[in-house]
């Protein structure tokens, strides 16, 4: 893909992740209440997934723009899939006993 298309994708995803980072503050504040019924492996996975999402999103925004600036357009788009690990971990945590 061209640099212009990649730049458009990066702008859209950067804005989206920025909104999601701000929106994740409330779930992060409420995440300790997951352990009210006791700590299990699934709850720990869910907890760390909730806490890790804004960190991974911020890292992906910074890394993607750095890669774009250095001409690695394909890698810049793939870096934006990093927060998906947190989302997958969230659903895996809820499915664990």
Automatic annotation (TrEMBL):
Protein known as:
Uncharacterized protein
> Top-down, what is the taxonomic lineage of the species of origin?
Bacteria, Pseudomonadati, Bacteroidota, Cytophagia, Cytophagales
Question: Which ranges does the record mark as transmembrane?
Answer: 9-35, 47-68, 75-96
Q: Which UniProt keywords apply?
A: Membrane, Transmembrane, Transmembrane helix
């Amino acid at each position: 893909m061209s640099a212009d298309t990649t730049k458009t994708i990066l702008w859209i995803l950067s804005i989206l992740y920025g909104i999601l980072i701000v929106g994740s503050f409330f779930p992060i504040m409420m995440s300790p209440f997951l352990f009210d019924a006791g700590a299990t492996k699934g709850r720990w996975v869910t907890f760390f997934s909730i806490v890790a999402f804004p960190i991974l999103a911020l890292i992906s925004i910074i890394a993607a723009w750095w890669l774009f600036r250095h001409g690695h357009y394909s890698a810049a788009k793939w870096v934006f899939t990093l927060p998906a690990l947190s989302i997958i971990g969230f659903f895996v945590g809820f499915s664990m006993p």
